[in-house]
Structures are given as C-alpha cells and as structure tokens.
Amino acid sequence: MAAPIIRIDNIVKRYGPLTVLDGLSMEVLPGEKLALIGPSGSGKTTILRILMTLETISDGHIEVDGDQLYHMPKNGGLVPADDRHLHRMREKIGMVFQHFNLFPHKCVLDNVTLAPMLTKGVAKAAAEKRAMELLDMVGLADKAKNMPAQLSGGQKQRVAIARALALSPKIMLFDEVTSALDPELVEEVLNVMRKLASETDMTMLLVTHEMGFAHDFADRILFFDRGRIVEEGKPDEIFRNPRQERTQTFLRKIIAAGHRV
Amino acid sequence: MTDWSGYIGLILQGALVTLQLTVMGSALALVMAFVAGLGRVSRFIAVRALATTYIEFFRGTSIFVQLFWVYFVLPFAGVTLSPLQAGVLALGLNVGAYGAEVVRGAVKAIGREQREACIALNLTRGQAMRHVILPQALPLMLPTFCNNAIELLKGTAVVSLISLTDMTFQAQVVRAQTGNTLIPFATILVLYFLMALAISTAMRWLERRVTRGLDGVRT
Prior knowledge:
Chain A: Residues 6-251 form the ABC transporter domain. The complex is a heterodimer. Chain A is α/β, with parallel strands linked by helices.
C-alpha cells in the first residue's frame, strides 16, 4: 500500500476558549477521494482550511506529501514553518471555496492565468493556452473574456475550479462548493468534479452536504461530529448501515430535509 | 478708470502658482498616502508605529504650524527650502496623512475571501496586494481622494503666509493697489471653483475607468 499523502497527527485547533478540533488524527492515500460529512460546526471545514494554511494549528503535526506542513526541520528538530516553507507546501494543494472568491476585477481568463504567471513564472502565452484547456474542460471556453460578474453561480464555481487546477496541485480541497448555488446549478459543478475524479489521479477532499454526490464520488466517507471522526468507511457502509447512533440521527435529518442518498 | 487686464494677469500668475502647488502637493500626498496607509497594515510593528506616528502628528497639528516649521524652523537644522518647496512639502505631508487613512480603510474593506483566495493560489503578500487587493481597493479610495485633492487646492492659500505669490496673495495685492475688493475676490472665487470642478471631473472619469467591468455590464 502506498504511503499516505496526508498524515494528520493529533492536531488541536482552538479559537480562544473554544476547542474545534481536539486531538484529531487521520490519513489520506494518494489519489483517494474523501468526503467529509457531518453537522455544521463539527470541524470538517476547519480541516480543509488548516490544510490550505488559512488557519494555524494549536498543537499536533501535519505531513503533506512527505513534508511537514506547519513545521520545518532545523538543527535536527522541528521549528514552526516560515513563509518560504509555507509557499513551497502550498504548491501541492489547491482549494475551491463555497463562495467562489473569484477576482472580480479580472476577466475569467486572467483569473486562471494570474497565479501560474506570478508563482511559477509561466509565460503569458503558455499560461493562456493551459487556461483555455482547463476552461474547455469545465465547459466555459466561450466565457474566457467575460468578467466574473457576468457569470451565473455555477459558472463562477467552474471557473474557480479551473483556476485552482491551473497550478496543478496534487491535492484538491472542495469546501461546500455547491452550498451557495441555486439548486438547478448544482449539477453542472458536480459534473465537472466527476469528470475530474475520473480523468485524474488527484487526491480530493470534499466537504459537502450533497449526500448523493458524496456516496457516488467518494472512496471513503468520514462522519464528523464535535471535532472528532465519529465513523468512517466506504460510502455504502456509512449510508446504508451506519453503526453509530450519531451518524444515523444525522442521516435521518438530512434525508428528512429532502436530500437524496 | 483702472486698467484691469494687468491686474487680472497678476491674479492669473498667482493661479499658476496655486496650480503648481496643487499638482505637486497632490503628487506628494498620494505617495505619502500609500506609503503610510500600507505601512499601517504592515505585519511589522515598527512600520505600523512609524506610519501611525506620522498620521497622528500631521492630522493632529495645524497646517499653518507645519508650514512655519518647514519654512522657518528647518533652516536651523540646515535645511533651507524655497517657499514653493516648503509649501509643497507641508501640504503634501499634511494631506497625505488624511489620505493614508483612506488607503488603509479601502485595503481593509477588501474582504477575507479575496485574501484567502490569494493564499490558496500561493501568491506572496506583495503579489496579493499588488494584483488583487489594491486594484479592488482603488475605486473605493477615489471619492475620498477627490475630496482630499480639493481640500489641498483650497489649503494652498496658506502659503501666502510664507510670501509665496499664489492666487490669494495676488488678489490681496490687487485689492491693495486698486482699492477694489469685489473684482479680485470674485475672480479668485471663480478660479478656485473652476479648479475644483476640474479635479472632481477628472476624478469621476478616473472612477468610471477603474470600476469598468466590476458591475457585470459589458464595456
């Protein structure tokens, strides 16, 4: 079996007096598609944010692709990572946000080319060629010159996916990427993600309330509650035969709310 | 009967000085606004402290006093400036302090989501500021910058106190020589107004330019 690409070891995350993650450990294999589900406030989004270095951790260690994320080796020990180390680590990871976070002052094409040109020194022509391939992949090549404000939510999110892919990360994080969309626009974004999952061997971590999609998409489901992994397993195990009562209650509520499993 | 053409010419010469002061003062103010405004949001405490001190000092003391210091006190420290240089320096530093807070406010107004997108795309702080934050913050600054520039224009009149022959100074000369109060003062009233109008028109044009496309209307 391949070594894990992400190894989270006993991490603690506190916001003031509030402990969001309390000694959490988990591993993700290369190429694995992982869905994190659970009630809001259970810490699942926090994990993605920590992996993207948008948060700091209060304690513990995270290893990504063989290197420490928040620490770096120095004089035989580990010290907190400096900016350079963080930049090097972020190259491996991309993230798509619930609210797209496109750059409103740049056209679709420039949104996708900006980071490769700035962070990897890719020439404009090469960056644009690659961007057009990615926009074609998400079905938006004809919108390359549009401004984000001219796009629908689903289109914006697809651009955001292309933008993250432009840096060729090994790991992609999807944080409730369909939660801010009108129901009829959800499917076009999910389709892009299905395509991505089938055509690449990227490791993908997904926080979602789309249980049906999580079931079809993920190799493994993690059910979170109050900062802990209550239950994990293959989609069929979790959705058809949840062992923990907490999982059963959560799934019942979700189904009662009209979500398809 | 007074021959007014010569006197109006005198006032126009003064108008040129006022214009010079306004343009150069605004240029310096703009630079100071960005230097101190970005200094205020620096992650280095020493930079923040320096920027804050500058802003509080120049906002908290009178432009008259600042001008006198620049013109009359600096020579004791070995720095002698021409009246024009002193005027530009005092006006630029003074208005720049107000502008700095405008820059800081606008930069802060660009929200967490944009900053997080920059981190996720692995931009450095400088790249994020230059390519993402500032281009979006600029449209927010312009209306207040326009106010500041007009304030600076009107503030230029204080330089007559250090014997610089600006528009207001010349109007007083004309008044003293002709004994007529209405004409010189009416002339500079109109001239100040026209200059202010030119500033706000230019700023509106600039604002339209930098906000192009942000509202989703194709241009």
